[in-house]
Design brief:
This protein is an alpha+beta fold. The protein is built from 2 helices and 14 strands, in the order αββββββββββββαββ. A hairpin with a 5-residue loop joins strand 10 and strand 11.
């Protein structure tokens, strides 16, 4: 009889142990199941303006013909260039409202000339006009081997103004005089690529 009592007590103890394990395991499972968390974040804004044009929306190219103004209005009429003078044109890259740092690359195309009356491109008897300088009002602008320029605008920084200076180097010959009679517009194609700086 003693053996039967021991078996019954053993069975009861095993049952109590299993019941305790079930209750403890259920409690542990409940704690684990409530240890969930949802996280969220908002996508950073991308709003970049080149001059007055909004070029936002990822990587974008913007091409324009840069308007140049004379640097010596006392000697040369505004909107014109003459031998041994220079003209400047500028544009602004404005990251206002952008929530990421940006980098930009500027490519200057080959200077060309249009007849201001007919609009035709002129390739003969053209003046010796070349880009002499490209600068920024803040930060640094690096010139690459391929003659492109690149810079960065950090998060929360102010707009950057890029200034391009072009000079007409006089050859002191009849061609300079002939160009003075030609109704030519000097055009510099400018391409700006703006993208996120990772």
């Amino acid at each position: 009889m003693k053996k039967n009592k021991m078996k019954i007590i053993g069975i009861i103890l095993i049952f109590i142990l299993e019941l305790s394990l079930y209750l403890v395991a259920g409690t542990y499972s409940r704690y684990v199941s409530t240890a969930e968390s949802d996280t969220s974040t908002r996508i950073a804004k991308w709003t970049v303006k080149l001059g007055n044009v909004d070029i936002a929306g990822g990587e974008k190219d913007f091409s324009s013909e840069l308007i140049l103004e004379t640097t010596n209005t006392a000697k040369v009429k505004t909107g014109t260039i003459a031998p041994n003078t220079s003209v400047k044109g500028d544009f602004t890259i404005d990251p206002n409202g952008t929530e990421v740092a940006i980098k930009y690359k500027i490519s200057l195309g080959k200077i060309y000339y249009k007849n201001s009356i007919t609009g035709e491109i002129v390739t003969d008897n053209i003046p010796n006009i070349e880009v002499s300088n490209v600068t920024v009002n803040t930060g640094t602008l690096e010139q690459n081997i391929d003659k492109t320029y690149q810079g960065k605008i950090g998060l929360g920084e102010s707009p950057v103004t890029i200034t391009i200076t072009v000079e007409w180097t006089s050859t002191d010959n009849d061609l300079d005089t002939l160009n003075g009679y030609s109704p030519l517009n000097v055009i510099i194609p400018v391409t700006v690529i703006v993208e996120q700086d990772i």
